[in-house]
Amino acid sequence: MVRAAITAVGGYVPENVVTNFDLEKIIDTTDEWITTRTGIKQRHIEKDPKKATSDMCVEAVKELCSKRGIAPDEIDMLICGTVTPDMVFPSTSNLICAKLGAKKAWGYDLSAACSGFIYGLATGAQFIETGRYKKVVVVGADMMSRILNFEDRTTCVIFGDGAGAVLLEPTEEDNGVKDFLLHADGNGATHLHMKAGGSLNPATIDTVTNKMHYVYQEGQAVFKNAVYNMAEVSAAIMEKNGLTAGDVKWLVAHQANKRIIDATASRMGIGSEKVMMNIERYGNTTAGTIPLLLWDYEKQLKKGDNLILSAFGGGFTWGAIYVKWAYDGK
Ligand code: UT7
Q: What is the Å distance from ligand 1's center to 216 Cα?
């Protein structure tokens, strides 16, 4: 059977770092509150108004190509999971490919908020498994700072900007994307959404005045759903594939809140040494978190390692993917 193996990883975060102490100076918050409630110590925020999500993605994909020794025009297809596209249309994927010179590639954006990368990975893997394509890039990226209200302490402290990307190639070895469980429940939209900018509430002076172009989140409702669903789906994919806690080398969980990640690990029965964590440095980069974890931990990964990728986010969307890692990190 042909499987989709991850054969390279790239990542990018903007240079500018905003610490919790920096935020203390502009809103009513404390480093202590942010650290104990979320695990976040700092986040990267793009300062240049001319830069957008596609620019972060271009850097991530360039790195991936150079690591794998391929040119962008060898890419067949590029899927970009994002809720902060450069513009409503054309797709960020098209803009990334143009900036990269990925002339052969077609692709599209995928809107699944924090689950954008795992939805994209499951989708991209299909194009490899069918034999249709040889090189599919899946990007997860969000420039959350562009949709944050920096007067709302309940949301602006949580998010950050960043992009990560993986290359999928066919393998006949027993590794790659082995299985996935994906879910959605649009009833959750009420708890986490952006009120304006779409066909329901197009931009008007009123939508701007009423601050409707920002992330709206009812934190506790999202937290409860995230803890339950991320933990359950992660345990479910282990059970479905006959994996015990001992078989799992790494939990690669969406970085929204350290407490949600700890609860997921505990439900799976795995220790903290197997949990990839970088929330303290990047905050919640939405679709960027999972590929940025792979980027940060790539050197520690070994061929044959069993990874459980798991996410929960706006939609609601959630799910888990079982990946057997395909190469030794360098
Ligand atoms: O990635 C997409 C999915 N999103 C998530 O998974 C996020 C899920 N939710 C969460 O992670 C948490 O709900 C938050 C981190 C957003 C909030 O933590 P919490 O423990 O649920 O806090 P809370 O909303 O219950 O608020 C507790 C208190 C409130 O004050 P009172 O009413 O008890 O006086 C808030 O006003 O903390 C206050 N508060 C803050 N205080 C200082 C809220 N934000 C802040 C802040 N600094 N930044």
A: 13
Range of the domain at 196: 178-324
Task: Note whether 156 and 150 are within 8 A (CB).
Answer: yes
Active site residue 229: no
* For ligand 1, atom 36: residue with the closest CA: 154
**Across the chain, which distance is largest between two alpha carbons, in Å?**
57
Query: Where is the domain boundary, 132, 155, 174?
Result: 174
Chain segment 94-153, per-residue pLDDT in tens: 999 999 999 999 999 999 999 999 999 999 999 999 999 999 999 999 999 999 999 999
Answer yes or no: is the C-beta of 122 below 6 A from any ligand 1 atom. no
Distance, CA 92 to ligand 1 centroid (Å)?
A: 31
The CATH number of the domain holding residue 229 is: 3.40.47.10
Active site annotation includes 114: yes
pLDDT, tens digit (0-9, with 9 covering 90-100), for 174-230:
999 999 999 999 999 999 999 999 999 999 999 999 999 999 999 999 999 999 999
Ligand 1 binding pocket includes 219 (Cβ within 6 Å): yes
- Domain shared by 278 and 303, yes or no: yes
Atom of ligand 1 nearest to the CA of 156: 48
pLDDT digits (tens, 9 = 90+) for 237-267: 999 999 999 999 999 999 999 999 999 999 9
* Domain count along the chain: 2
* Residue 21: predicted pLDDT: 98
Same domain? 193 vs 126: no
**Cα–Cα separations (whole angstroms), residue 288 to 78, 165, 261:** 15, 8, 16
Mutation to probe ligand 1, out of 154, 224, 259, 317 (largest number of atoms < 8 A from CB): 154
- CB count within 10 Å of CB 150 equals 15
Q: Is 47 exposed, middle or buried (0-12, 13-18, 19+ CB in 10 A)?
A: exposed
